[in-house]
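Propose amino acids for all 166 sites.
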């Protein structure tokens, strides 16, 4: 069943692929307890108005946003949430929608935006006492083209997943 889900997710990601919009991605998984980072490559696919798919390791690791629905497959484990129910992803979804559609990045009380060297660094730090999957999201966006250059999802204990987009 897990393989079927992985294959279907990969097919969905590939069906949305458009040569003009696909970009190369380098994924770095850092775990503080390990001495070396796990590095892999893949693609970023964007389909307006609100779909994004980052797929690495031949589809074994994916991050998808389809409207308000987020699907993350990490090491074969699937996690699904919706920004309507999960406030941690609400601001993240608004920022990604703005980036996808070339619009100004919205502001919010749970985020900071720093502009430097032609790039905007957006740090989203979810608030609340509930245990969160990620402690913060950091997006680096080209100020002129609104192209996403980097996405970093910080976890507890110094762990993170970083996507460098070329």
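Proposal:
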């Amino acid at each position: 069943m897990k393989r079927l889900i992985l294959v279907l997710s990969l097919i969905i990601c590939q069906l949305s692929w458009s040569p003009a919009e696909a970009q190369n991605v380098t994924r770095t998984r850092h775990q503080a307890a390990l001495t070396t980072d796990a590095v892999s490559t893949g693609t970023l696919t964007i389909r307006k108005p609100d779909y994004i798919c980052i797929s690495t390791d031949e589809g074994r690791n994916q991050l998808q946003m389809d409207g308000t629905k987020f699907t993350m497959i990490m090491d074969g484990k699937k996690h699904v949430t919706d920004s309507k129910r999960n406030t941690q992803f609400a601001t993240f979804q608004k920022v990604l929608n703005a980036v996808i559609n070339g619009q100004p990045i919205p502001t919010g009380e749970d985020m900071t935006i720093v502009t430097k060297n032609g790039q905007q660094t957006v740090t989203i730090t979810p608030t609340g006492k509930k245990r969160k999957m990620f402690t913060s999201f950091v997006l680096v966006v080209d100020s002129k083209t609104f192209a996403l250059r980097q996405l970093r999802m910080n976890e507890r204990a110094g762990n993170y997943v970083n996507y460098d987009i070329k």
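Residues 2-15 form the longest helix (14 residues). The first strand starts at residue 23 and ends at 30.
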